[in-house]
Design brief:
The complex is a heterodimer. By secondary structure, chain A is an all-alpha fold. Chain A has nine helices and no strands. The longest helix of chain A is centred in the C-terminal third of the chain and has 43 residues. Chain B contains three helices and no strands. Chain B is elongated. Chain B starts with a helix and ends in a 13-residue tail after the last helix. Classes of the chains: A mainly alpha, B mainly alpha. Chains A and B meet through helix 1, helix 2, helix 3, helix 6 and helix 7 of A and helix 1, helix 2 and helix 3 of B.
């Protein structure tokens, strides 16, 4: 069990170091996902299986999806497809694939084995976590929910202002063109379809 | 791992890499909490990890929205080019 723990920790650290030395964001994201999976295996070995599942779901699932979305949105345009073809050559899959294979073999070995923790007495069950979470830490839960709400509203605000500005600018543009065309809307918007995307 | 994240934060000059390094640092702090909780058989470590998880999600949400805004405004993600704030 200790060997498995050290292997998982080594995989996490190595993939983090490789993540930092990548030049492209997509490569770094792959290594970051492997790193998070390694940390999840470490959690599982420590007896915190609930936290390991949360790590995979929230970090490797939700947060990485956010990163991928942003990378996707930043690469909009004609050269993006060519760039992605260049990025996703089969060679770059080898590194994360090897590390992830090590983790998978380790997890299979652990699932087949009898004990899943370093020491069985150290297991903190999800029930204990829930009791502690909604007992002494209830105010923390409320604060975390407020923080998440603030995060969502802030992100919405930051993303919304740009759209609004574009709408205002578009409206002013239309008004000006209508004035210059003598109030004729059809004439004012004659070349708009060719000009705007 | 925390030091790796800190190094990445200081070395890389790309905003997305900076955010990813922040993720690594938060993750390392959560790992330390869980290890301590497992060492002393307390549930508090995992509770703290849950809070760190929520905070990381909120932080990444706002941070990535800011990155999008900055990219649309400056057409660049280089931190050095963005240091035009004057007092």
């Amino acid at each position: 069990m200790e060997v498995a723990f050290y292997i998982a920790g080594a995989v996490a650290v190595v993939s983090t170091a490789l993540m930092l030395t990548r030049l492209h964001i997509v490569h770094a994201l792959l290594y970051l996902i492997v790193s998070l999976l390694g940390v999840a295996v470490v959690f599982y070995l420590l007896g915190a299986s609930f936290v390991a599942a949360l790590e995979i779901i929230v970090y490797a699932g939700a947060i990485m999806v956010l990163f991928v979305f942003v990378v996707m949105m930043l690469n909009l345009g004609a050269p993006a497809a060519e760039l992605e073809k260049h990025w996703l050559t089969p060679g770059i899959w080898v590194g994360p694939l090897v590390l992830a294979t090590i983790l998978i073999i380790e997890v299979l070995y652990l699932v087949r084995g009898s004990t899943a923790s370093l020491d069985a007495a150290g297991i903190v069950t999800p029930k204990q976590v829930g009791i502690a979470l909604f007992g002494p830490y209830l105010i923390g839960v409320e604060l975390a929910s407020m923080l998440l709400l603030a995060g969502v509203v802030g992100a919405y605000h930051l993303g919304y202002r740009k759209v609004e500005k574009r709408e205002v600018q578009h409206g002013a543009d239309t008004h000006e063109r209508r004035a210059s065309a003598g109030g004729d809307l059809v004439l004012a918007g004659a070349d708009r379809s060719a000009r705007t995307p | 791992m925390f030091s790796l994240g800190l190094t990445g934060l200081l070395v890389r000059r790309n905003l997305i890499f900076v955010l990813m390094s922040l993720e690594v640092m938060l993750n390392a702090a959560g790992l330390a909490f869980v290890v301590a909780g497992a060492r002393w058989h307390q549930a508090d470590g995992q509770v703290m990890f849950l809070f760190i998880l929520a905070m990381a999600a909120a932080e990444v949400c706002v941070g990535l929205a800011l990155v999008l805004e900055i990219y649309h405004r400056f057409k660049s993600l280089d931190v050095d080019e963005l240091s035009e704030m004057r007092g």
